[in-house]
Amino acid sequence: MSLCPCGSNHNYQDCCQPLHLKQRVAETAEKLMRSRYCAFVKAEYQYLIDTHASEFASGLTKEQLAENSANWVGLQVESAIERADTAKVTFKAWYQIDCGFDAIYECSDFIKRDGIWLYTTGEQFEAKLPKRNDMCICNSGKKFKKCCALTL
To answer: Domain YchJ-like middle NTF2-like, which positions (predicted)?
Structure first.
């Protein structure tokens, strides 16, 4: 069994997989965001479409999502603010590129419809690579200089 890519420290089979298989729905907007990150890692593109509010999806397809596959490294959730039917989750989703690392750094908006959380839109920010003594972006528990920075 492998740990879930969402960073929960649970096995994938007990964490995001039941959401991807539509056996459960995300109880919170943060859990939805984590499961959506995991869906990118696991190439569960239909789940990404199904959990995107249709009026905000702009005709997004599984094929378009597959074109932009990345080597995902780790997820860092900075904050999650949830109200009755709306939420904001700010996160960094790190991925490896040819010359190093970059991240989708976003404050995502979510709505709750009929008890189900859906992603709507997000505001993008510029991510800065951690400093040498910061914790690593892959959530290994090691300092960046002793982990992913070694691959730069």
So the answer is: 28-122
Whether 32 and 111 have beta carbons less than 8 Å apart is answered as no
CB 93 within 8 A of CB 7: no
Q: What is the DSSP string of 9-78?
A: SSBGGGTTHHHHTTSS--SSHHHHHHHHHHHHHHT-HHHHHHTB-GGGSTT--HHHHHHT--EEEEEEEE
Mean pLDDT of 25-52: 97
User: Among residues 54, 8, 58, which one has the least CA distance to residue 33?
Assistant: 8
For residue 69, what pLDDT is reported?
Answer: 74
Tokens of 74: 């780790």
CATH topology of domain 12-151: Nuclear Transport Factor 2; Chain: A, (3.10.450)
